[in-house]
TrEMBL record:
Domain Restriction endonuclease type IV Mrr: 15-131
Database matches in InterPro entries: Restrct_endonuc-II-like, Restrct_endonuc_IV_Mrr, tRNA_endonuc-like_dom_sf, Type_IV_Methyl-Rstrct_Enzyme
Keyword Iron attributed: no
Name by which UniProt lists this protein: Restriction endonuclease
GO biological process, one term: DNA restriction-modification system
Length: 335
């Protein structure tokens, strides 16, 4: 489709994504438009009105910027009150500059307030135009523009399907390692190489396993590839839930962290299906668990055995399920 048609299509897509997906989208747009090697853009770092923050550093200039993101439906405009509160958050956080992005539009008073407060505004029309003109989320072909699947795949969440795909069955059996993975994302640029350096026992395979686990739990998202020094690099990023889980655990509030983890586990379809079977039957042996996995997923026989161990550990985090010995094996029972 042509540029104007693609812009209209993107506007519609902006209204369809969830508020958190819109924040991730804006983070990726900011990362690509701030074309400097030293820029770092991290979503969900603040709890005071800053949704995305970053540092732009070039030669003698170093600027800390903050962005606020509002995914509103068409017709629901951003008011001057929102802009003024955002200005307060920028001041409180010692940010030198700020950008307010929305999928909808701004009122006249909001635009006047932003001009007085030196805040940059980006509405849905401008955001879509920026994405098209800079090939962010879209690719220009001879016949026109088309969506770039890799960009939009970074916004996807696990889907409810009849047969659970293998990528949605976890193979990461240590929640301690998961927390180390989340910490490494938070403290580095989120690339596999930096995560591996931060966690000595991790290699690229571990990063993928715990990245997938974090994605299933709603704790991380995977950014689309960007080019660094002529090579393609992927980055992991924390979601609000992931950042909250990490902060709760680090603050010593392990009970609240456990509740956050349980909420994430209940969203994992394969965990939900297994928990339902246990509730219906009263118990499930380890062999029966593997049989359910074989029937409900597209895993190979060897993969079923490996992932059953992980799922056993995930299930017993749920307060209604306990593990009991059964001869040389074990079973999972409702409590």
């Amino acid at each position: 489709m042509q540029a104007a048609a693609m812009q209209d299509h993107l506007r519609d897509r902006l209204y369809e994504v969830s508020p958190e997906q819109f924040e991730i989208l804006c983070k990726m747009v900011l990362s690509r438009r701030l074309e400097t090697e030293s820029v770092q853009v991290t979503a969900f770092r603040q709890d005071d009105g800053i949704d995305v923050e970053g540092v732009i550093e070039e030669d003698v200039v170093r600027v800390l910027f903050g962005a606020q993101v509002k995914r509103y439906h068409e017709g629901n405009t951003v008011s001057s009150g929102h802009v003024q509160r955002f200005s307060g958050a920028l001041t409180q956080g010692n940010y030198q500059t700020g950008t307010f992005l929305t999928s909808s539009s701004f009122t006249g008073p909001a635009r006047r307030a932003a001009e007085n407060l030196q805040i940059h505004l980006v509405d849905g029309e401008q955001l879509a135009a920026t994405m098209v003109s800079n090939s962010i989320g879209v690719a220009e072909r001879v016949s026109g523009y088309e969506l770039q699947p890799e960009f939009w795949d970074a916004l996807t969440e696990p889907e409810r399907t009849d047969t659970i795909p293998s990528k949605e069955v976890p193979l990461a059996n240590s929640f301690e390692s998961l927390r180390e993975f989340l910490a490494a994302i938070d403290e580095t640029d989120g690339t596999r190489a930096e995560i591996n350096n931060a966690v000595s026992e991790f290699d690229s395979r571990h990063a993928d396993l715990y990245g997938t686990a974090g994605w299933l739990l709603g704790f991380v998202h995977e950014d689309t590839p960007t080019e660094v020094d002529g090579r393609e690099v992927r980055r992991w990023g924390l979601t609000k839930n992931g950042l909250e889980y990490r902060r709760l655990h680090e603050s010593g509030d392990t009970e609240a962290a456990r509740k956050r983890l349980i909420a994430g586990l209940r969203q994992v379809e394969v965990v939900d299906r297994l928990a339902t079977v246990i509730a219906e039957r009263g118990s499930l042996s380890y062999d029966e668990l593997k049989a359910v996995l074989a029937a409900e997923t597209d895993l190979s026989e060897s993969s079923v055995a490996r992932r059953a161990s992980t799922l056993g550990q995930w299930l017993t985090v749920l307060p209604e399920i306990a593990e009991r010995p059964e001869g040389r094996s074990k079973k999972f029972v409702s409590v």
